[in-house]
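Can anyone check this?
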Amino acid sequence: MLGSAMSLIALLISLGCLFHLSHCATKPNIIFFLADDLGWHDVGYHDSMIKTPNIDKLAAEGVKLENYYVTPLCSPSRAVLMTGKYQTRTAMQHHVLKAQEPRCLPLDEVTMPQALKENGYTTYMVGKWHLGFCYWNCTPTHRGFDKFFGMYLAAGDYFHHTRTCHGRTAECYDLHDNHESVGHLYYGQYSTTLYAEKAQDFIRKHDPETPLFLYLSFQAVHAPLQVPQHYISMYRDIYDQDVDRMTYAAMTTCMDEAIGNVTQALKESGLLNNSIIVFSTDNGGAVSFGASNWPLKGHKGTVYEGGVRGPAFVWSPYLKPHVKGTMNNELLFLGDWMPTFVHLANGTLKNAESLDGVNQWATISENKPSARHEILHNIDQLEMFPSPRQVPEAFSKYSDFNINVVSSIRIGRWKLVTGNAGDASWIKPPEMGYYRTNGEHVAVQLYNIPADPEERMNLVPYRPDVVYRLLQRLKFHYDRSVVPVDLKPELKEADPVLHFNKTWTPWKG
């Protein structure tokens, strides 16, 4: 009788843990899949012709984040993800880190894996880092990851694991197992598949008594456009007139297969039922390399929706039943993951008050209102030049913020864009009858995003009061938190051809 009662109590406790994660001693495994340059229109559940069955299945069983924002480019997004802070606060707001640039994510920043490690997690990273490597202390195993297998840079060869040095033609290896350069050992193996295999290996060897954090940062689907031939054959009848789109689609399907294989490894290892899986892109798709952000305006590198609004979802048994299989339209941001994950780990952040990210677990798992009302998309003070057309209303007379600076902020339903914000076009993908519609370039743009997610109606002439209020908010952020970018020239001492036997490696100690 006593045994039966104890079993019932144990069952009730386990059920309580399932629906009230924060009350449990058991910490969930956290798996974060980051795609590179994946467009809004390039997952199956966004009505794409690209085949992503594993992504679609996980999204259908989880919650799709349809009002979710990243940054316009690779390095800035990774800085936001790792620190929970806007890229303007880590001097990462201007373009991406270059190969021989002697700087990295500031070493005094507490990173997400460091915070999780302090709360008992074993932390693994596989894939693309792109946050600098001039010092060893800049590299993943010195920034909170127990184990790392992947690349420091971007845009390397998917099969050779090499990247040319700027100004040279020689290919230099960029593949690392912790501190060891291993590109020559895996020459010819496709990186998407290789990274998935390494992630599966980490999962199978992981001690299930310890919570796991796995960050799988794919190289895909970033240029160069490369993929094994049998994936291309799946798309010949669809994209026979557009080789870039065909190859990009094949790369996306290969990445989807990799996600399915890693998820299966979690299941086989008994870890899946205590896991939270997050999928996200790092920025909008690069249209010049086969991506599509249709019907959104803009693309990678712009602060328009096509550059900063990304496909994302969460899968977990810890989601409340009423949110599984739904779309979440609450405002969410890439920088929210750090405080959200530490909350799930039953931990505390020592620097919580300094973060821009907020804990969004109640929003994601229960569909409660978002904990945020604002997102600073960017302020890039180095991109400061007159727009091709100026608006009639000279807002510069009424605000201290320079409207020629490329910037953007979202507050509630309103989004403000200033400066020459880049390609303002809407581009249909080839399968929909490729067509480009060019938008206007003006110094100040205002959009009501819930009513106009495609940013087609500039409301500046109708709501100057809102424009002024958002300009003042940009000025506040500029004064409070924009760290100047100290651009340094790329150094010859970092040249792997001259000094490091054609291997990209830290060069400053």
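Reply from J.R.: I decoded it. Confidence is low (pLDDT under 50) at residues 1-14.
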